[in-house]
Amino acid sequence: MRNISLKRILRIGLLAAGLVLVAAAAPGAQQAPASKTAKTPAAKPAAPAAKTVHNEAKPDKVPVTTSSKEARHDYELGMLHREDLLFDEEGLNDFRRAVKADPNFALAHATIAFFSDDPREEKHEILLAKQTLAHAAADEKLLIRWMIGTKDGDLIPAISAMNDLMASYPRDARLGNMYGEWLLAVQLNYERAEEVLQHVLKVDPNYYPALNNLAYCYSLSGDYSKTPKLMEQYVAQLPGQPNPQDSYGELLRMAGDFKDSIEHYRAALFISPNFTTSQLGIASNYAFMGDEHRARVEYLRAIAMTKERTTKLQYRMLWAMTYFRANQQDEARKAYTELATLAHKEDLAVDEAECHRAMALFNPDAAAGLKDLDAAQAVLSQKHELPRAERESELATILQTRAFIAARAGMADVAAKALEQITPFAEKSRSNVIQAAYHSTNGAVLLLDGKFAEAVAEFQEDPRDPLSLQLLADAQSKAGQTAESAKTMATLAAINDERVETAAVAQPVREALKRNNPSSTQANTPQE
Questions:
Q1: Rounded distance, CA 142 to CA 162, Å?
Q2: Cα separation of 117 and 196, whole Å?
């Protein structure tokens, strides 16, 4: 599972994050992991046997409906590549071939919309999934409604559909893993995700995707002690595939073990030289260790390895961030400005907005940073091919960032305006990302009003976000909670992911703690 931006997980291989579905093998059959990007598998498995029209009715699996043997074959192959083995680009191409073979294959249309990072493709495939819905089986329609509802922002009927599916198919491991991964990667609901994934592993203790996702669940919750056993089991079950090594590398990096992380990424690349996310992981490790020049070299290699335009742009954003990490403001702003222009040309609205938001977070002048955020918001006010859920999540993130900058600069009126803007759609949304952004924004307002204890409670609703943690530590300190404030700062310093918030906020805290207490830092220097 790629974790470039938890708040934008579906747009980058955290960045993607993959979800999945249907057409699982027989009970007890070996299946595989969840969520990365690559070009060609290390050892390409045989494609599943094709079937016509409906698959055989099985009480423990959601049905898959198509009139074409070729479409069914490509869909199954896509699930194998994208869901089980985490070859993102190859899996998407399989799904695209499936809908060419059967234009009425509603589930395949929904699956493309669900996995794609391209907003044009998402919106187009959502429309086609709705138009062809009548061709799907009854329970299959529930799955399709859940998939497109999560992208359209219609979460209440989407969650209702998934609840019905989970009740009807409690032994469908792939369905349960898909739901658990969505809770984990998109909703950031680690506790509920853990429950769902634990249930999947009770049904099938060797279901690799759930092993992978459960390990991420523990790590993202800050509990790294439980991940090694799961990763060792995952690696042992798939010794000839790169994703277990890739996941192990990412989880080690999240825990601050950069040296061993790089070795696992290299092991993944040894198995599959084109496994893009492992090359990206090596680059990010060097960025975290402060070798920004080496990181840029490694990022360029990852950029050259991917063909998807959205992924390539997002990798370039990480490349540009190295200049900010090195405190080279002019070079960084030049790079991000060029990327914003490219994103605008490509009609990638969220990525364009993110370029402006990144410049705002690193801008040393608060007033100028707010102007960067004005530019980010202006992008979302324009007409774009963008699913509503993505537009609202990005807007919430921008408003949270505005409140964060305002809180640091003592601009109470700016924070209050951000709260005024985020409140209407937060009141209607079931998105945990939007709810977390709302609580953080409200916390900033309370902090500026001197209501420190109330601010603490609000920031604690967003416990893994660097912006919220920074302000939480400030609120705790002002509330007289000195020990708690120090713990919060330590938690913030220990975050090692590829989010721009981490680079802008956690990295300076980590460096400050290192200066004050060198033995408290985690970083290892890799051996060549």
A1: 7
A2: 25
> Using CA of residue 416, residue 418, residue 421, residue 424, what is the dihedral sign?
negative
> What pTM value is reported for the model?
0.82
Cβ-based neighbour number of residue 430 at 10 Å: 13
CA distance 329 to 249: 30
Among the listed residues 55, 57, 50, 41, the one whose alpha carbon sits nearest the alpha carbon of residue 71: 50
Residue 347 has which token pair? 């009609």
Q: What end-to-end distance do the CA atoms of the chain give, in Å?
A: 26
Q: Contact 58/22 with Cβ under 8 angstroms?
A: no
Vertex 466: Cα angle to 463 and 469 (nearest 5)? 50
Strand partners, 65: 54
d(CA 420, CA 236): 52
C-alpha span between 179 and 197 (Å, rounded):
9
Name the residue with tokens 């938890």. Answer: 6
Q: How many other C-beta atoms are found inside a 10 Å radius of the C-beta of residue 520?
A: 12
Which residue intervals of 9-118 are DSSP H helices? 69-78, 88-101, 106-115
* pLDDT per residue as tens digits for the range 19-42: 222 222 222 333 333 333 333 334
